[in-house]
Amino acid sequence: MLARTSHHLFQPLLYQVATGILSEGVIAPTTRDVLAEQRNASVLLGEVTTVDLEARTVTASAIGQQTTYSYDSLIVAAGADQSWFGNDHFAEFAPGMKTIDDALELRGRIYGAFEMAEVAAASGRHDLVERLLTFVVVGAGPTGVEMAGQLAELSKRTLAKEFRHIDPSSARIILLDAADEVLASFGSTLAGRTARDLTRLGIEVRLGTKVVDVDAEGLTVESRDGSQERIEATTKVWAAGVQANPLTRQLAEQSGAELDRAGRIKVNPDLTLPGHPEVFAIGDLAAVEGVPGVAQGAIQGGKHAAGQILRRLRGEETGQPFSYFDKGSMATISRFRAVMKRGRLELTGYPAWVAWLAVHLFYIIGFKSQVQTLMHWAVSFVGRDRSERTVTEQQVLARLALEYLGEDFLRTSLRKPPGAAPSAPATDS
Ligand SMILES: Cc1cc2nc3c(=O)[nH]c(=O)nc-3n(C[C@H](O)[C@H](O)[C@H](O)COP(=O)(O)OP(=O)(O)OC[C@H]3O[C@@H](n4cnc5c(N)ncnc54)[C@H](O)[C@@H]3O)c2cc1C
């Protein structure tokens, strides 16, 4: 198991780390711990930079050191990255939510905005307060809906009584999407119900609205009729799109497989690459008819690929097509409110919320994390508090600082003798 992080991440609960309900350790146990009992599995840290299908090797880099590994069978499951639809510069001011780093950065930005608003109000700079207390979530899929719902609860329940110069419950929360519905993949009945629930929570739901520019102090949006509007908002969250991991380009070039618009690689029905029965591409980076980019697609794809490899090792026939079983979709809106769809069954409100809790608790890895999650949920959903509100300056600044210092920074600084001065940035731009 070769991966660029040492943890396994349960992405569906990232928004709860970002809003202070859960700690990062609960949703991201170390992969080494998860696989500790599996004696034939070895866990290695490394960012895969090159896959050579002809030579059957994978080259990975860990903290500046490159290693090449050979394989008999390869499963590529490197997932997807956030997509800003060709506007990567938006990321500076509107971070996405795909990693633990992203969630912690967002936590710092969200709680930091309330702190800065209090400072502004206390020092008489009331003109800044509205902008600091405006939160915009871009993308009204499950992640955006859950994030907007939690921002509303945070401002109205958790923080309501803690500040002296601002009223946190007056925070403006805007959920934007270029589509005509929230949760478009859930069908119009659940979409309509979700939009009504969000509005009742005080969230402004603005559909048919596209983001055309983002900066430190706000964003510009465009309506269907082409009219543009400026929204002043310090905190922006990007939950709008994903792009398959760039490794798919290498795999496509070498195998002749096609990529779809999201950069996902089109695989054979058995999830292998054309001409390479020993290489599987699964999960968010694979394009398979009828399989959505959700956790079940990845989990079931992983089981299929592993099953195929075992069959080959046992000398049995391989090449059976992957068949996907849709276990349904769900999203929480706020405390006690969720929507759920499974086949023709549609649930809303409290029953859907309880089902959501049960399913997510079941999929959290490890008994210890499950107990901790239950306790944190009790604190936030029965009570009003959040257990994980600590934020640090580095949470907010580290990503941008590392980008500024450039790619060579890590490698060169690690080679420096102790006490040497840090490298200067590559450019002063
Ligand atoms: C915020 C959020 C909420 C979600 N909510 C839900 C939900 O409620 N229900 C649901 O079903 N799905 C949900 N999803 C989608 C679900 O998490 C994904 O479909 C699933 O994780 C895909 O699994 P995967 O194994 O393909 O990729 P991932 O889980 O993304 O795993 C890919 C791994 O590969 C590593 N990696 C990437 N590139 C390299 C490289 N070059 N070298 C080494 N390692 C690399 C990554 O660090 C990562 O550990 C959500 C996703 C997000 C981001």
Automatic annotation (TrEMBL):
PANTHER family the record matches: EXTERNAL NADH-UBIQUINONE OXIDOREDUCTASE 1, MITOCHONDRIAL-RELATED (PTHR43706:SF47), NADH DEHYDROGENASE (PTHR43706)
Reactions this protein catalyses: a quinone + NADH + H(+) = a quinol + NAD(+)
UniProt-listed Pfam families: Pyr_redox_2
Family indicated by similarity: Belongs to the NADH dehydrogenase family.
Coiled coil feature spans: none
Residue ranges constituting the FAD/NAD(P)-binding domain according to the UniProt record: 4-302
Domain of life: Bacteria
Swiss-Prot/TrEMBL keywords: FAD, Flavoprotein, Membrane, NAD, Oxidoreductase, Transmembrane, Transmembrane helix
GO MF term set: NADH dehydrogenase (quinone) (non-electrogenic) activity
Entry protein name: NADH:ubiquinone reductase (non-electrogenic)
Database matches in Gene3D superfamilies: 3.50.50.100
TM helices/strands, residue ranges: 350-367
EC number: 1.6.5.9
InterPro entries named in the record: FAD/NAD-bd_sf (IPR036188), FAD/NAD-binding_dom (IPR023753), NDH-2 (IPR045024)
